Amino acid sequence: MARGRSPRADNLRQAIAQEAARLMIEHGHGDYGVAKRKAAERMGVTDQAVLPKNAEIEQAIAGHQRLFVAEAHASELAGMRAAAAETMRLLAAFEPRLVGPLLSGTATAHAVIALHLFADTPEAVALALMDRGIPYEFGERRFRVQRDAVESWPEIRFSAGMHEVEATIFPKDGIRQAPPGPVDGKPMRRATLAEVEGLLIDKGDASN
């Protein structure tokens, strides 16, 4: 039988989650692991057993946004989603999908627009951007596919107005199976352009 956690450990776990959320919101830390370790360090915690799960940090981010910056967050989210939709139209040939905090609604002001694209080669995406005069740079995106296994895919980075875009490029058949997400390890939720446009319409109706 698993040992139950003490109330003190639960409170400490929650406090670390809230501090990690604050670091991600206010200082732009984009990695859950980095944020939770820095939060624990600031609080003098060395016991790894009380570190929160990534999902608990995401919940703390959402709670902070609802409580302290609801109106500003809604405006930022709508602006970033509109920019994402415009970028997805631009790259329609590569069947773009929106992923990450911008889709889940927990994106901070420091977040990038994260997309998944599907192409025969990364160079095909680069040529599409070059044809439109958009500067870009290549990088790499790593996903933990199993407990001790990591896979890498090419990533192309560029600007969409005031926002930064990081688009991971998968083979065309990669559209069938999304890689595990950093929050819960389940296949990442991917949204089509139509779904993103639907989010914008829903928010617009709600504000009227």
From the structure above, extract its key features.
single chain; 208 residues; alpha+beta; Beta Polymerase, domain 2; 2 domains; 5-stranded mixed β-sheet; 7 helices; 19% strand; globular
Task: Write the SSE topology.
Blueprint: H1 7-27, H2 32-42, H3 54-68, H4 70-90, E1 97-99, H5 101-104, E2 113-118, H6 122-131, E3 137-146, E4 149-160, E5 163-170, H7 193-207
Parallel strand pairs: 2-5
Antiparallel strand pairs: 1-2, 3-4, 4-5
Can you walk me through this structure?
The chain has 208 residues and is an alpha+beta fold. It has 2 domains: 7-68; 71-207, Beta Polymerase, domain 2 (2-Layer Sandwich), CATH 3.30.460. 47% of the residues lie in helices and 19% in strands. The chain is built from 7 helices and 5 strands; from the N terminus they run ααααβαβαβββα. It has helices at residues 7-27, 32-42, 54-68, 70-90, 101-104, 122-131, 193-207, and strands at residues 97-99, 113-118, 137-146, 149-160, 163-170. The protein has a 5-stranded mixed sheet. A hairpin with a 2-residue loop joins strand 3 (137-146) and strand 4. Helix 1 crosses helix 2. It is globular, with a radius of gyration of 19 Å. The relative contact order is 0.13.
Summary of the model, kept short:
The protein is of the alpha+beta class. It has helices spanning 7-27, 32-42, 54-68, 70-90, 101-104, 122-131, 193-207; strands at 97-99, 113-118, 137-146, 149-160, 163-170.
What order do the strands of the largest sheet run in, or round the barrel if closed? 1-2-5-4-3
CATH architecture of the largest domain: 2-Layer Sandwich
The portion of residues forming beta strands comes to 15-25%
Shape: globular
> What average pLDDT do the residues reach?
90
How big is the Rg? 19 Å
Amount of helix: 40-55%
Order of helices and strands: HHHHEHEHEEEH
Number of structurally distinct domains: 2
The N- and C-terminal alpha carbons lie at a distance of 53 Å
- The CATH topology of the largest domain comes to Beta Polymerase, domain 2
Largest sheet: 5 strands, mixed
pLDDT < 50 stretches:
none
What's the CATH class of the largest domain, please? Alpha Beta
Count of alpha and pi helical runs: 7
Number of strands: 5
Return the structural class.
alpha+beta
